[in-house]
Amino acid sequence: MTKHDTVIKLLLIEDSVEEAEQLISMLRNGGIALRPTRAGNIDELAAQLETQTPDVILVNLTAKSMKLVDVAALASRGGKDIALIAVTTNASEDTIVAAFADGARALALRNRAEHVQSIVKREFESLNMRRGVRRLEAELREIERRCDALLDSSRDPIAYVHEGMHVRANKAYLETFGFEEFEEIESMSILEMIAPDDADDFKSLLKKLSKGEKPPQKLNVKAQRVDGSTFDATIEFAEASYEGEPCQQISFRQQTMSVELSRELDVLRSKDLVTDLYNRQYCLAELDRVIGEAAKGRNDQALILLEPDNFKHLLDTVGLGNADLLLGDMANLMRRHIGESDVAGRFGEHTFGVLLGGRNAEDVRALGEVLRKSFEERIFEVGKQSVNANVSIGGALIGEKNSNAQAVLTQASNALRLAQTEGGNRVNIFDAAAKDKADEEKNRHWLSLVKDALANNGFVLFYQPIISLHGAEGEFYEILLRMHGPKGEIGPGFFMPIAEQNGLMPAIDRWVISSAIKALAEREKAGHKTTFFVKLTPQSLDDHTLLPWIAQQLKNSRLRGDALVFEMPESKVVTSLKTARAFVTGLKQMHCGFALEQFGSGLNSFQLLKHVDANYLKLDRSFMADLPKNKENQEKVKELCDQAHHVGKLTVAEFVEDAASMSILFSCGVNFVQGNFLQEPEKVMSYEVA
Fold first, then answer.
1. Can you give the residue ranges of every domain in the chain?
2. DSSP letter (8 states) at residue 344
3. Mutual angle of helices 505-525 and 546-557, in 10-degree steps
4. Rounded distance, CA 464 to CA 689, Å?
5. DSSP string, 570-619
6. Residue in 654, 476, 645, 466 with CA at minimum distance from that of residue 564
7. Spatial CB neighbours of 518, under 8 Å, sequence gap ≥ 6
8. Rounded Cα–Cα distance for residues 454 and 499 (Å)
């Protein structure tokens, strides 16, 4: 779960706002998006549950205002499904047993942040799964109702057969075989409907079906009516269920054309006429079949997708009129290297796909390389042109974990796009089983890059202007960190998590601060009064030598302290309140400023200002979402600005993305604005020092 996933509606049962804020910060630090509320007594809880149904309720077992059993009783009133989690620091056997007896679904250890985070994620996922199952059950009931209606109104003779016996049949079926009521054939063997000449073969088929083998899609037989008369029929099979039991849906269609002609028409309906491969519709049906086998445990199947690189250039070369000839030749080349049981099809305008069976991961990759090399070496003669058509290949192994058609298509498509973005003419196969190992190797690679950047000055600062809406003196910039890479600068989302996991953030923070002070000193000498907003990570707060070091850096550069504003997210400050307060107090002695980012995301953000003296409040980006149309966000921004100005704080609106938002923010009283709409981060500042 990431910050961009579905927001969890969280209700906290806590005696104090401070304790609730700690839990909120703890969860947000784990990347969990929240919309939190708090209930301090039973009446507030009842009111909260009436206005909206929360996804998760966290109940502090030591709360004096409410007991877990009372919360559970209120939460379950009206049949609501809510993930109720008990939170405690004392996880004795008696505590655990009592919590579950009182209605908790899980118990989380408050003093272990990772445990609280994992329990909330797990219970929210479980809640969504239960909701999904209920939706599917409702949809299934509706589908069954519609199927019954369609079955009864269908002109095709259709029956449901379980272990060879009739359990359901429609009116057309009864009329076809000469019966008036279903009771006449209930529990009668389907063999009674087959003429003696085909009875033995059909009996063998029924035995295979009872062992779980797949039926043929169609079977031509001579059917027999109750009066002994016969007719030629085509039987179509489909897996189904009746009253919860697995069965076969069997449709009898009287033959009105020759078997050969019927077979030819079936082939034409399933083929792509340009390439003679199967069409997309047929392939998707086959993919559903393959997915069904994977769900039952089969793990030797895969889907690979193949596209020519630079297809637009190929079209320009051979001409649009010859495009079909080129695609046909490519399909023929692909067909030569796959097995008879593999299903090859045209998935898109110039996208080919193959459903593979009986191959492990190594076999799939080997086939991909064989196909890639065969295209690399082949010269296609199209019209009067000779062209080389290298291809990129992406694929996904199909197993029980990804037994979903859309998931497999997405994984294969993403693998194909990755192969193309890496230069094309390559094979990329997604394997969920190997992903964890690859992630470990990737993390080691990034760690090496970060260490190298620290040792060899491999970082670079970017600057984004912060614009005053009320004419504040000087220039203001947010400092953003990037890392040099082989193909340009690398964003922090790639290397920061690894640096944080390995305790490298204090060293990176010092590099940023030192580089920012040097840049500021140059601007001051050139006569540009400038203020930098510099991000600081929580790990640096534990470094007791940082403040003296900053003071020395300022002294050496003869730079005024108020040219620097250090900033941290509100949630991070709450979880490190004691050290953050001491750090900000030290900053004030050097006349440096401090800003709270993501302000307004907590239960009572202004309460934090009693402990941490921030100069700037950078409003949470959620308030910027669709601001011109969202009256609620507009009112919240104005409320925050009014409160901020009342206590002498300046406000900054980040992530401003349109002109309409600018006028709204000005009218709300926002002091500064920042965002890509105004200017994207750049290596140079707007007024660069000569």
1. 8-133, 154-266, 271-430, 444-673
2. E
3. 20
4. 16
5. HHHHHHTHHHHHHHHHHHHHTT-EEEEEEET-SSSHHHHTTTS--SEEEE
6. 476
7. 557
8. 11
Return the amino acid letter for 168. R
Give, rounded to a whole angstrom, the gap between the first and last alpha carbons of the chain. Answer: 47
Angstrom distance (rounded) from CA 112 to CA 284: 46
The DSSP code for 682 is: B
For the domain bounded by 271-430, which CATH number is listed?
3.30.70.270
Span 579-605, pLDDT tens digits? 999 999 999 999 999 999 999 877 778
505-525 and 492-501 are packed helices; what angle lies between their axes, rounded to 10 degrees? Answer: 130
Pick the closest to residue 370 from 346, 339, 410 (CA basis): 339
What is the residue-wise DSSP string for 318-372? H-GGGHHHHHHHHHHHHHTTS-TTSEEEE-SSS-EEEEEES--HHHHHHHHHHHH
Encode burial over 339-367: b for 16+ CB neighbours within 10 A, e otherwise. Answer: eeebbbbbbeebbbbbbbeebebeebbeb
Helices (H), 61-104: 68-76, 93-101
pTM of the model: 0.53
What's the pLDDT tens digit per position in 416-466?
Answer: 998 998 889 999 998 866 665 666 777 888 899 999 999 999 999 999 999
Residue with tokens 């086998």: 293
* Domain 444-673 in the same topology as domain 8-133: no
- Give the pLDDT band of residue 689 (cuts 50, 70, 90): very low
DSSP 479-527: EEEEEEETTEEE-HHHHHHHHHHTT-HHHHHHHHHHHHHHHHHHHHHTT
Q: What is the pLDDT at residue 5? A: 43
Architecture of the CATH domain 154-266: 2-Layer Sandwich (3.30)
Backbone phi and psi for residue 677, each to the nearest 5 degrees, phi listed first: -65, -35
The gap from C-alpha 31 to its chain's centroid, in whole angstroms, comes to: 13
Token output for 132 = 């999904």
The enclosing H or E element of 26 equals helix 17-29
Dist. CA 325–CA 319, nearest whole Å: 10
24 token code pair: 């909120």
Fold exhibited by the domain 8-133? Rossmann fold (3.40.50)
What are the DSSP calls for 130-194, one per residue?
Answer: HHHHHHHHHHHHHHHHHHHHHHHH-SS-EEEEETTEEEEE-HHHHHHHT-SSGGGTTT-BGGGGB
Q: How far apart are CA 57 and CA 8, in angstroms?
A: 10
Structure tokens at 470: 């009320």
Q: For residues 340 and 357, is the Cβ–Cβ distance under 8 A?
A: no
- Residue 357 tokens read as 């069976």
The answer to whether 463 touches 478, Cβ cutoff 8 Å, is: yes
The overall longest dimension of the chain from CA atoms, in Å, is 110
Alpha-carbon torsion 585, 591, 592, 597, what sign? positive
Q: Which residue type, as a one-letter code, is found at position 332?
A: N
The answer to whether the beta carbons of residues 173 and 252 sit under 8 Å apart is yes
Q: Which two tokens stand for residue 341?
A: 């049981």
56-60/475-485 β-pairing: unpaired
Q: Identify the three-state secondary structure at position 246.
A: strand
Q: Which two tokens stand for residue 398?
A: 């199909």
Predicted pLDDT of residue 426: 93
Cα separation, 657 vs 655, whole angstroms: 6
Average pLDDT over all residues of the chain = 88
Alpha carbon distance 250, 217 (integer Å):
10
What does the alpha-carbon distance between residue 22 and residue 3 come to, in Å, rounded to a whole number?
A: 18
Q: Reduced to 3 states, what is the DSSP secondary structure of residue 111?
A: coil
User: Which residues on adjacent β-strands are paired with residue 594?
Assistant: 566
Which CATH number is 444-673 given? 3.20.20.450
Would you give the distance in Å from CA 74 to the centre of its chain? 33
What CA–CA distance (Å, rounded) separates 339 from 356?
Answer: 8
